[in-house]
Amino acid sequence: MARAGTDCLILDLESVPDTARWTPPEPPPAPAPFPPLWAHRIVAIGYAWLDGEDRLTRLGVIPSTGDSPDALERDLLDNLTALLGDRPPTLVTYNGRGFDLPVIALRALCHGVALPWYYRDRNVRSRHSEDGHFDLCDWLADHGAIRSGSLDAITRLIGLPGKQGVDGSQVEGLYAAGGLPEIERYCLRDVAQTAFLYLRTRLLAGKLDRAGYHARATALYDAFAADGRVAEVLAGAARDRLLLAA
Question: pTM for the full model?
Answer without folding.
Answer: 0.94
